[in-house]
Amino acid sequence: MSRGDCPQSFREGLRDGVHLRDCLALAVVPAVVLGVFALPTATRESLVFAYRDPTLVTAYAAHFVHFELEHLAANLLGYALLAGFGYVLAALAGCRRLFGAAAATYVLAFPLVLSGLNLAVPRDAVGYGLSGVNMAFAGLLGLVLVAYVGRRIDERIRVRYAPGLFFAAVAVVSLVALPSRQVSLVLAAASTAVVVGYAFSVRSARLASPDPDLWEGTQADWVDTGVLGTVAFLGYPFVGFPAPTPADGSVVNVYVHLLGFCLGFIVPYVALAVGAFDAATS
Question: What pTM was estimated for this model as a whole?
């Protein structure tokens, strides 16, 4: 917990930070996805995004369309983990406004943006599913995780160090998802070098402001939540970027997943950097 804050239990933090209206707002997306899934198959087929015949309606609606129960369940579980856990971390970090603005952007604007960027890779195929939006929430998770650590565990950790965590995830993604081994190793090595640079910056900041009593009075719940957040952020790429192997005539769109992840981190980070939102740990 930040040394400047009064001692607060983890339960008190949840009670004060998490609001029912926010949870209901986040629940709208699963409700819409389930509603679309209940539509007749022919109706859902008319809503998929055809790259050779794109429309504004399908560019947006396709991100809420699913056909297989397994695909639906995987995306809903991913949304619950990424958006739900991200919201809790943001609430505990005092970043509810940032999270709310980012979430609204992901749901209202990102479907059109991701579909449009998909057209940069011409192909005769269709796209659908919530995965791109989910990956945007995955990018946001890394940002609010760093804000949480700075607010609740070590106030010397600033949001400006968040790109280090982002590039750690990029290194994982490059090794997991890229088909070219040579390219993946080069990208992973470059990302790791950036991570090391940020790690030295964090170490220098901590040495410049030593606090030997930092952990005194800090409840294990705060630390455990930070650890779980780190595992979720660095572990989800193994789910969001599976090996590119076709199954049943379908192929996971790694390109749109990567776009969602990168934009999901960059957009709110830039918003913080230009002062659009206040963050005590920036």
Answer: 0.90
